[in-house]
Amino acid sequence: MRRSLSCLCRCALRSYHSSELKLNSIELYQFRSYQQQRFTFEPAGNLIIGANGSGKTNLLEAIAYTSMGKSIRFHQDKELIKNSEEQFSVLAMYETDLKLALKIQLVYDASRKILKINDEIKRQLSTLFADVKVIYCAPDDIGLVNGSPRQRRQYFDLAISQVYPEYIGILRDFLHIVEQRNKLLKSEFQLNEKKSWDRRFAQSLVALYPYRKKYLGMLNDELGGSFRNISENTRDLRLTYVPVLRRAMELSVDELMAQIEQYESREKLWQRSLIGAHLDDYSFRMGEFGMRAYASQGQKRIAVVIMKMIQAQLIESNTGIKPILLFDDVFAELDYQHGEKIHELCRDSYQIFIASPKEDVRQIFGKMNVIRLGNSA
Description:
Blueprint lengths: L4 H10 L4 E2 L1 E10 L2 E7 L4 E5 L6 H13 L18 E9 L5 E9 L2 E6 L2 E3 L11 E4 L5 H4 L2 H15 L2 H20 L5 H33 L13 E6 L10 H10 L1 H7 L10 E6 L2 E2 H4 L2 H23 L1 E2 L1 E5 L7 H11 L5 E5 L5 H4 L3 E4 L5
Parallel strand pairs: 1-13, 4-15, 4-16, 9-14, 14-15
Antiparallel strand pairs: 2-3, 2-5, 5-6, 6-7, 7-8, 10-11, 11-12
């Protein structure tokens, strides 16, 4: 049964207690370029300054890893192990605004991963989504505008999960159904069996689509409101949903079943599901035009940063948890004016980590704690 959009908001608010987490320290063992190292952090924010290759990005990746249990940069776990080693571990010590400790430890060894929260083993990595919220910003994020539909789906699925952790299970179930249905389409199937999987496929779409619709609506409300004047170059920015099926988000189970039937011959030919949320896309638009084709590189970069700042606000307003913001060499790509505006949005609101190879980032964030890596140390 389709859940109302207002119900989604109420359920999310009931699922969380108001909390402000700060990362106090992190210990890395055989993680990426680090053999064994411990870092301590200041609550207001931290500048991580070092030459390229000094480990700045690896440190931010480790912080993000403690919020989701996998690489924010889509590395496989085995790729995170330092060369020639066999395992890695990450231990993060957080603290709430009530001075309560939150200890998060992740160990990967022999293709097995163990998550402990306050020394208690957790079976589901998705447990982290309810406790820690981290947003990672990097120059490569321009790929959200220029890149593949898969990259955009991955980003928005993560963003939605940070607001509605139950979405993780709904998405997982949907992708499992797609996988099983595709296997069926590659075989000599019975019609009744296919109809059963078709209905499960339609039901899973009806369960999933309201979350995407709700998140996109909240995002566009902010783009048209308080974030409208961040940059003259992105004043008419908005996001649209581009489904394979027209009006896909509005269709009932029976209406989706009718659409699936129309695709039956083509799906038999191609032996895979040709419609659904796993193929849909998002489009960045400026007024009537798509940004991918018509916007400048500068417009695309500031648009993505604005979207990440809105992501932070939506997490806080819907869950009561203030996210931690990671900026990986982002300010080198922005002019001073836009850098100052982003600083104003962060001021006194979030714990932030800014990695840069250049000292000039201190012109904007000069009062923050400085951690130097490599030859800068």
